[in-house]
Amino acid sequence: MRTRLGGRRDLRATRDGLTGRAVVVACPPHPQAGGDRTDSRLRAVSDALPDPVDCLRFDYGPWDGGVAEQDDVRTALEWARREYDRVGLFGFSFGAAVALAAMTDPDPEPAAVSVLAPAPGTVDDRVLTGLDTLTCSVQVVHGERDDTANSEPVVERARKRGHTVETVPGDHLFVGQRARIGKCVAAFLADTLLGDT
Question: Is-contact 82 92, C-beta < 8 A?
Answer without folding.
Answer: no
